[in-house]
Specification:
With 382 residues, the chain is mostly helical. It has helices at 3-26, 36-62, 64-85, 93-112, 115-122, 127-130, 133-147, 155-172, 178-181, 197-210, 245-269, 285-301, 312-339, 354-376, 378-381, and strands at residues 187-188, 240-241, 274-276, 280-284. The strands form two sheets. A two-stranded antiparallel sheet has the order 1-2. A hairpin with a 3-residue loop joins strand 3 (274-276) and strand 4 (280-284). Helix 4 (93-112) runs parallel beside helix 8 (155-172) and helix 11 (245-269) crosses helix 14.
C-alpha cells in the first residue's frame, strides 16, 4: 500500500470516527427537538460503514486476492439472501447449487487473475472472459438446466427471478474488485513540469546529437559528416498522474456510502416530492438530485486519488454512481415489498443483511468501472 492509499484510507477512517463522535454527542440532545428517527438511522448507517470499510481496509492491506475473496463472499451471501426470498421448486436445487458453488466462484476467480498472465496463457484479456461469462453463457445455460428437469410449473417466472439475482448479486458486484486487477492507462494533465521549455528541448537536442547517426556526405578532407535530424515537435510537457487501482476502489465504495446518506438527509429536509412512497418513503426527488450533486463535490475533493486528468471527470462519476446507487436501492426495496419483508437478512446491525448494505454498490459498480475505462482512454479514443 503506497502513500496515496494510506492517506485516503486514514482520512476516511478519521472522518468515520468524527461522525461517530458527532452522533453520540447529538444523542444527548434528544429532549431538545432532535429528530430521533433521523439520528438513529444515521447512527446505524455509520455502524454499517465501520463494518464494510473496516473489512475492506483489512482486505486491501493483505492484498488483491483477499480483497477479491471478500467481495466474492459478500456476493455469495447476498445471493443467498435473495434466493431465500425467491420461491423455488425442488427441480431448481441442482441449478442453484451450480450457481453458488461453480458460477459465482468462477466469476470472481477470473476477476482476480492477473491480466498480463491471462494474456500470455490464453491470448486475450481477462475482461473479455468475465464480462460475458454470466450474461451470455450463464443466462443461456441456466434456463436449459432447469428445463431438463421436466418441471414446467411457473418456469418463466422461476428462471427470471434467478437470473435477476445472479445479475445483480454476482455479475454487477464483481466489477468492484475488477478495479484492482484491470490495468489503468496513465492520465495526463496540461500542467508544465518543473523546469523551463528551453531546458526540455535542449535536453532532447543533446540526446539527438549524441545518438548514433547514419553516414553522411564526405567532407573536403575525406572524413565523414554525420547527419542528424534535430526536428523536435512543439508540444507542452505534461505531468503524469499515476492510476492507483487500490485508491480508486476504496474511493468508489466510500462515495457510494456517502451518496446513500446524502440522499437520505436531503430527502428528510426536502420531502416535498417523494419518488415512490409505497416503495421507499425516505427518498424524494429533491433529495436524490441534491445527494448526487453533493457526491459529485466529494468526488472532486478526492480528485488527487484518481487517475482522471480532468476535474470534471470525477465529478461526473460521482453524480452518475449516486444516481445508480439510488436505482439499486429502489429496485431492491421493490423486491422486498413484493415479498412482504422488511429486510433481506439479519447479519449487519442497522441494515440487517448484506444485500441491504450493498444494493447501491451492485448497481453502481459496473457503471463506474466503464466510466473509469472511458475517461482514462479518452485521449487515445479521440
Amino acid at each position: 500500500m503506497d502513500y496515496q492509499s494510506i492517506v485516503l484510507i486514514s482520512g476516511v477512517l478519521l472522518l468515520l470516527a468524527l461522525a461517530t463522535w458527532g452522533t453520540s454527542m447529538l444523542n444527548r440532545y434528544r429532549d431538545f427537538g432532535m429528530d430521533t428517527a433521523v439520528l438513529d438511522t444515521c447512527r446505524s448507517r455509520i455502524r454499517g460503514w465501520w463494518i464494510l470499510l473496516g473489512l475492506l481496509t483489512c482486505a486491501l492491506l493483505i492484498g488483491t486476492i483477499a480483497t477479491v475473496f471478500l467481495f466474492g463472499l459478500m456476493s455469495f451471501w447476498a445471493l443467498r439472501e435473495y434466493i431465500t426470498l425467491t420461491p423455488t421448486r425442488p427441480a431448481d436445487h441442482k441449478t442453484l447449487f451450480l450457481l453458488f458453488f461453480a458460477c459465482t466462484p468462477l466469476q470472481f476467480i477470473l476477476v482476480g487473475l492477473d491480466d498480463n498472465w491471462f494474456r500470455s496463457v490464453f491470448g486475450l484479456n481477462a475482461y473479455s472472459v468475465y464480462s460475458v461469462l454470466i450474461p451470455v453463457y450463464g443466462f443461456l445455460l441456466l434456463p436449459a438446466s432447469i428445463a431438463i428437469t421436466g418441471d414446467s410449473n411457473r418456469f418463466l417466472e422461476r428462471v427470471a427471478k434467478i437470473q435477476v439475482g445472479l445479475l445483480i448479486c454476482v455479475y454487477s458486484l464483481s466489477f468492484a474488485p475488477a478495479l484492482l486487477t484491470t490495468p489503468l492507462p496513465t492520465g495526463v494533465t496540461n500542467e508544465v513540469v518543473a523546469g523551463s521549455l528551453e531546458e526540455e528541448y535542449i535536453g532532447r537536442l543533446e540526446k539527438a546529437v549524441m545518438a548514433p547517426a547514419s553516414q553522411g556526405k564526405e567532407s573536403e578532407n575525406g572524413g565523414n559528416i554525420s547527419t542528424v535530424s534535430t526536428t523536435i515537435p512543439f508540444e507542452t510537457p505534461r505531468k503524469t498522474m499515476s492510476a492507483n487501482n487500490l485508491s480508486l476502489l476504496f474511493m468508489f465504495v466510500f462515495l457510494v456510502q456517502m451518496s446513500d446518506i446524502f440522499q437520505y438527509l436531503w430527502s428528510q429536509f426536502l420531502p416535498r416530492h417523494q419518488v415512490a412512497p409505497s416503495i421507499n418513503r425516505n427518498r424524494s426527488w429533491e433529495g436524490v438530485l441534491l445527494g448526487a450533486l453533493s457526491t459529485a463535490l466529494v468526488a472532486v475533493a478526492l480528485w488527487y486519488f484518481t487517475p482522471f486528468p480532468k476535474w470534471w471527470q470525477p465529478a461526473f462519476c460521482g453524480f452518475v454512481i449516486s444516481i445508480m446507487g439510488f436505482a439499486g436501492s429502489m429496485t431492491m426495496s421493490a423486491i422486498k415489498r413484493d415479498r412482504g419483508v422488511q429486510d433481506y437478512g439479519t447479519l449487519i446491525e442497522g441494515h440487517n443483511g448484506v444485500l441491504d448494505r450493498i444494493d447501491s454498490l451492485c448497481f453502481a459498480a459496473p457503471v463506474f468501472y466503464h466510466l473509469v475505462w472511458l475517461f482514462v482512454n479518452l485521449e487515445t479514443i479521440w
